[in-house]
Amino acid sequence: MTDTTADAKTENRTFEADVSRLLHLMVHSVYSDKDVFLRELISNAADACERLRYDAIANPALLGDDAKPRITIALDADKRELTIEDNGIGMNHDELVDALGTIARSGTKAFMERLEAAKASESATLIGQFGVGFYSAFMVADRVDVTSHRAGSAEAWQWSSDGKGTYTVAPVDAASAPARGTRVVLHLMEDAKSYTERYNIERIVHANSGHVPVPISIIEKPGAEPTELADGAALWTKSRSEIKPEEYTDFYRSVAGQFDEPALTVHFRAEGRHEFTTLAFVPSARPFNLFDPGRKSRMKLYVKRVFITGDAEILPHYLRFVRGIVDSADLPLSLSREMIQTSPILAAIKKSVTGRVLSDLEKLADSDAEAYGKIWDQFGPVLKEGIYEDHERRDTLLKLARFRSTAQASETRRSLKEYVEGLKTNQTAIYYIAGENQAQIEASPHLEGFRARGVEVLLLSDIVDNLWVTYNPSFDGKPFRSVTQGAADLAAIPLLDNTTETKPEANEAVTDFIAFVKLTLGDAVSDVRVSDRLTDSAVCLVAPEGGPDRSLEKLLAGSGRAVPAAKPVLEINAKHELVTSLAALDGDNAFKEDAAHLLYDEARVLDGDRPADAKAFSVRLARLISRGVQSAKG
Question: What is the DSSP letter of 274?
Answer without folding.
Answer: S
